[in-house]
Design brief:
Strand order of the largest sheet of chain B: 1-2-11-3-12-15-13-14
CATH topology of the largest domain in chain A: Aminopeptidase
Strand content of chain A: 25-35%
Distance between the termini of chain A: 36 Å
CATH architecture of the largest domain in chain A: 3-Layer(aba) Sandwich
Order of helices and strands of chain B: HHEEEEEEEHHEEEHEHEEHEHEEHH
Largest sheet of chain B: 8 strands, mixed
CATH class of the largest domain in chain A: Alpha Beta
Strand content of chain B: 25-35%
Radius of gyration of chain A: 21 Å
Structural class of chain A: alpha+beta
CATH topology of the largest domain in chain B: Aminopeptidase
Number of helices of chain B: 10
Radius of gyration of chain B: 21 Å
CATH architecture of the largest domain in chain B: 3-Layer(aba) Sandwich
Number of strands of chain B: 16
Helix content of chain B: 25-40%
Oligomer: heterodimer
Chain lengths: 338, 351
């Protein structure tokens, strides 16, 4: 299953090769023209003679860690890529291409003062244990600069849901891959971008290269619709359908695109929601500012617990996102102009 | 069965204090391979007996390793189907965040203890540990289905697979104290190659994490001449004073102090030296915080010893132990048992 492969693929920002390989393999019968660039973006090109050039982007990279020091006791120290210190403790991880297993432990509760248990353990005092007894032994298995991912298995969860790591934004990658499996009469460019989590860096150059007339960004976004949370702070609701953004910290959605998406959703009875939070940025921030500016909109799949070892999403949200974007593309074929 | 495979199956099984059935079934079956008989008592302790040689009254030695693990227990199902919970045993709340769990309801249900994503978190919240009362288990099911499958009082474990970190170190939840149950198996297997006069009671105890309860009644039932508790101790690691720990992979830690009979300690360490089995002596002036604390004062008093396997990250879900330590400790125990005779036991009463 593609979503499982994508979720379990190894791809912190700057090391997206495995995700790229999964996508290339999955789309080999549907995409005949590929474009790759210096940063590692993968662009599936479906050219056509007429119609607006449409770019759809989803980022391949995920949050993770990078080894920056191995101490004399054979323990690995690290830097975070987009993670909250609190999610790290008591987790199994996989290090480097070889997926060397390791654990992030913590001092036993017996050895802590009651006050300590109320404090976040800073990542600087955490380390990864790979069972090596010396620096030399550790360096036989890993090296400085190796990336680290959580050892989370993809699986079914609850009713019509799945759980796994990196749904931000492998869920977007999945949706884009499915969209690319159909043919359209307009020029369509599916950009699987790199380095979103470290500053939307891949999308900027991909946007420049494609020079689209309009762009859609597919994101796995925040969803905090839990008991005890204020409803206005949910961001999105699980099962509520694709979430269309008016504004976030990196861009303001193009109003014509938003209205067209809402119209299509309503006419076709596709559930949708408007994203309620304006925090967080995404690839639209760079793409919309590419060259002389590009009309862009963000459509998100609600994912609970993103930026942590395990996130959850509702498959119906993913399917509705795919349907909505496909119908939008058909509408553009019919002559929609921003 | 290989000791490593037995340990793997045990740590992946469930056995939160008071709900040890699943792991107890496994231990009963595997102890059956190396014992003459296996039974259970009212509190759920698994008691294997491997008889010694010779007619007449033989010395009795009890080995105790607890098979219960720390965990969580459901306290409330809310109107949206999210679960509130409390702890069973000493759980550090900070180890629960972003954890995948199994709720052991009418059937096993996967759950997630999530954290609000950083995008939605205020800067002041980011600096604080989330208290257990602020955490929820999400099982992704409609509330009606949750109520069918899950009840208040159901126990919860972290969903964790056994991991091999290199060739020697293994990691999972519940290494505390199933590594010791594996040591007992290793010892019994080793004893098959040795001659021993003592009857050995191999006990996987229950409810240690909530108050040493299984050991209390099983020791009474067996009334051994010597009682030995096997537990984990803190493995050496940065951030923890060296004197509170024992190095990993350097053999068992052997305790001495008020909770330990000096002659048993002397004999165990003598055997270790004789057979070149490395160990770390561990002075514990008063309470050891193990089953041994209860065992020592059962009936008219029991001569005791405590051997421990160094383990890093105790009471997290990634506890580690060294298989070398498991082997060395099993062998040392077997050699000690083979050395015990009636005269030694008699000597324990006057010293």
């Amino acid at each position: 299953m593609l979503l499982k492969k994508l979720s379990e693929a190894f791809g912190p920002s700057g090391y997206e090769q495995e995700v790229r390989a999964v996508l290339e393999e999955d789309l080999k019968d549907y995409v005949s023209q590929w474009q790759r660039d210096a940063l590692g973006n993968l662009i599936a090109c479906k050219p056509a003679a007429t119609g607006p050039r449409v770019m759809i982007a989803a980022h391949m990279d995920e949050v993770g860690l990078m080894i920056n020091y191995v101490d004399d006791a054979g323990l690995l120290h690290f830097r975070e890529i987009g993670l909250d210190d609190r999610v790290l403790v008591s987790k199994p991880v996989l290090i480097g291409k070889q997926r060397i297993p390791g654990v992030i432990g913590a001092k036993a509760i017996h050895l802590q003062k009651p006050d300590e248990r109320k404090q976040v353990i800073p990542s600087r005092s955490l380390f990864i244990d790979i069972g090596a007894k010396t620096k030399e032994e550790a360096l036989e298995r890993v090296k400085i600069g190796d990336y680290v991912i959580f050892a989370t298995k993809f699986g079914e969860f609850g009713t019509g849901m799945v759980k796994g790591k990196a749904f931000d934004d492998r869920s977007g990658c999945y949706a884009l891959a499915e969209i690319l499996k159909e043919d359209y009469s307009i020029p369509l460019y599916g950009a699987f971008t790199v380095q979103e989590e470290v500053g939307l860096r891949g999308a900027g150059v991909a946007g420049y290269a494609i020079a689209p007339d309009l762009a859609i960004v597919l994101e796995g976004t925040t969803c905090h619709d839990l008991s005890g949370a204020d409803e206005h702070a949910y961001s999105t609701v699980l099962g509520g359908g694709p979430a269309i953004s008016f504004m976030d910290s990196s861009s303001i959605g193009n109003k014509a695109l938003i209205h067209e998406l809402v119209r299509i959703a309503e006419e076709n009875n596709i559930p949708y929601q408007l994203k309620r939070s304006v925090t967080g940025g995404n690839d639209a921030g760079r793409i919309s500012l590419s060259r002389t500016g590009v009309p862009a909109v963000v459509i998100s799949i609600p994912c609970r617990y993103i930026h942590s070892p395990v996130s959850a999403l509702k498959l119906s949200d993913l399917e509705h996102t795919i349907s909505l974007v496909k119908l939008f593309l058909r509408s553009v074929e019919g002559g929609f102009r921003v | 069965m290989q000791t490593r495979d037995f340990l793997r199956q045990m740590v992946e099984a469930t056995g939160v204090s008071g709900s040890e059935c699943q792991v107890a079934d496994l231990v009963s079956q595997v102890y059956g391979e190396v014992c003459d008989e296996v039974q259970r008592d009212v509190l759920g302790n698994v008691i294997g007996l491997k008889r010694g040689e010779g007619a007449g009254k033989r010395p009795t030695i009890m080995l105790a390793g607890h098979m219960d693990e720390i965990g969580l227990m459901i306290t409330k199902i809310d109107e949206k189907g999210f679960l509130k919970f409390t702890q069973v045993g000493g759980v550090d709340q900070r180890t629960l965040v972003s954890q995948e769990v199994i709720v052991h309801g009418r059937e096993d249900v996967i759950g997630i203890i999530g954290l609000k994503p950083p995008h939605l978190m205020s800067p002041e919240d980011r600096g604080k540990a989330v208290p257990m009362q602020g955490l929820l288990i999400d099982v992704g099911l409609p509330v009606e289905r949750v109520r069918e499958l899950i009840s208040v009082g159901d126990v919860v474990t972290v969903n964790r697979s056994f991991m091999e970190l290199g060739s020697d170190i293994v990691s999972c939840k519940a290494m505390d104290d199933r590594a010791a149950v594996a040591v007992i198996y290793e010892c019994l297997s080793e004893l098959k190659k040795l001659r021993h006069t003592a009857d050995v009671y191999a006990v996987a105890t229950t409810q240690e994490e909530v108050g040493l309860r299984g050991a209390t009644v099983s020791t009474y039932g067996i009334n051994p001449d010597i009682g030995i508790a096997l537990d984990v101790c803190h493995g050496a690691m940065p951030g923890v004073p060296e004197q509170d720990t024992a190095p990993m992979g350097n053999g068992p830690s052997i305790a001495f102090g008020a909770n330990i009979h000096p002659k048993v300690f002397e004999q165990v360490t003598k055997i270790a030296k004789e057979y070149n089995i490395s160990y770390t002596p561990r002075p514990v002036p008063a309470g050891t915080g193990t089953d041994l604390w209860a065992m020592q004062v059962v009936r008219a008093g029991i001569p005791t010893a405590l051997l421990s396997i160094p383990s890093r990250y105790m009471h997290t879900s990634v506890e580690t132990v060294s298989m070398t330590d498991v082997k060395l400790m099993g062998r040392l125990l077997a050699l000690f048992i083979a050395s015990v005779d009636a005269a030694f036991v008699e000597g324990l009463l006057c010293y």
